[in-house]
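STRUCTURE:
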């Protein structure tokens, strides 16, 4: 984010959701990125680094730096008025006050549309609300469809956080068709695609004309800081593969079974309040075959405490092994090639994929960018809704296969007990 914002006309924007995806959570402001101890009132638990234990989300921060004084936030739409009001108070007390000087808070999209003035028509919506409220055609969960209906002639662009939904793939497909037919710009927040180490992996494969023979992804999450009960309920957030592991499902695709819920010693959510058939699994392992004959696998485990995840993705091709390590915190690429048995290690200082995806989205939407294309050295949108739908479908296929496997195992266990 070292480049100064480019001059131009005002850029009108609406945030849907006032939570940590769009705006860093208040209790994490001012914390260092180092994990630290807190007061004895929290029994010595460690607090997470700023942003998220999974990654430093905060789309508003990147948009402020990308657009500078051009940014005009027309509205924040969130039924939690107090949360949105706290966001506005912080922003108006900072150097970005001009972006939020006239921002209004609305409880719903319909309320926003009732008061929208022509001169405030948004260039883009940033959809960072919980996934259960998007990617669907049911009333109240259909924000994309509402936006398309409200602006039939020229729909504003949409940046949609992943996963694109928690509803069925069939429902998300209907939304995807509508977005494609509208021809508006849509970008989905599969942020890991924008990492420089990931682009380095792609360039190695392309420059050497390599065909991926296999991918192997491992996603080991820390669970003790996940205190939102909805996250632990499959009917709410879709389960860990659809909501969380989908990042590595998508990343595996980008390079072209279960245990029943057990006991965890550091859990902050009372799972007894969640129906047993909706409790999320502790370990998931899946294997699939790509269209080109290559094999993919994913292991998602929910067993670590603390805050730092253990995440890796390996890509295998003739003579090559590419290993992406810790993409959320300290992205590192380890390369084994025909040139040497020793690994080459690649890192890129200052790489911020969140800014890169926001930059690509804004460049594609910005009226002052007549071509709609990224400038030299910049990236274009890497994750469209249509392509993200394939990652969403694979994530659901893994979940559904795991549930069938778990059900079969339970039936067999009952038969053995008879």
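SEQUENCE:
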């Amino acid at each position: 984010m070292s480049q100064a914002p480019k001059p131009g006309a005002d850029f009108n924007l609406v945030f849907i959701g006032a939570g940590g995806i769009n705006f860093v959570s208040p209790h994490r402001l001012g914390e260092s990125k180092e994990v630290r101890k807190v007061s004895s009132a929290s029994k010595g638990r460690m607090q997470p680094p700023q942003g998220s234990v999974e990654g430093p989300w905060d789309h508003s921060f990147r948009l402020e730096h990308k657009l500078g004084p051009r940014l005009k936030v027309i509205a924040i739409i969130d039924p939690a008025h107090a949360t949105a009001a706290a966001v506005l108070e912080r922003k108006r007390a900072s150097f970005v006050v001009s972006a939020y000087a006239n921002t209004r808070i609305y409880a719903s999209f319909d309320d926003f549309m009732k008061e929208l003035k022509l001169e405030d028509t948004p260039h883009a919506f940033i959809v960072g609300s919980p996934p259960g409220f998007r990617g669907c055609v049911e009333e109240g969960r259909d924000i994309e469809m509402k936006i398309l209906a409200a602006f039939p002639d020229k729909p504003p662009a949409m940046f949609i956080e992943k996963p694109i939904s928690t509803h069925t793939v069939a429902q998300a497909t209907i939304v995807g068709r509508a977005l494609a037919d509208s021809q508006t710009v849509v970008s989905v927040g599969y942020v890991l695609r924008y990492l420089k180490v990931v682009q380095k992996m792609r360039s190695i494969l392309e420059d050497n004309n390599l065909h991926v023979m296999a991918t192997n992804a491992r996603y080991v999450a820390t669970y003790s800081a996940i205190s939102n009960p909805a996250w632990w309920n499959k009917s709410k957030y879709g389960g860990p593969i659809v909501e969380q592991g989908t990042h590595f499902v998508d990343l595996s695709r980008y390079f072209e079974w279960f245990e029943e819920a057990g006991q965890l010693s550091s859990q902050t959510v009372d799972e007894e309040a969640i129906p047993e058939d909706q409790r999320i699994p502790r370990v998931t392992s899946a294997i699939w075959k790509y269209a080109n004959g290559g094999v993919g696998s994913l292991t998602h485990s929910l067993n670590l405490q603390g805050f730092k995840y253990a995440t890796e993705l390996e890509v295998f091709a003739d003579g090559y092994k590419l290993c992406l390590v810790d993409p959320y915190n300290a992205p590192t690429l380890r390369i084994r090639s025909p040139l040497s048995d020793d690994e080459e290690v690649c890192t890129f200082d200052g790489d911020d994929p969140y800014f890169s995806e926001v930059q690509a989205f804004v460049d594609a939407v910005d009226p002052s960018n007549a071509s709609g294309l990224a400038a030299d050295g910049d990236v274009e949108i890497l994750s469209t809704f249509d392509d993200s739908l394939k990652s969403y479908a694979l994530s659901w296929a893994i979940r559904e296969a795991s549930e069938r496997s778990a059900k079969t195992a339970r039936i067999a266990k009952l038969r053995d007990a008879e």
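REMARK: The radius of gyration is 22 Å.
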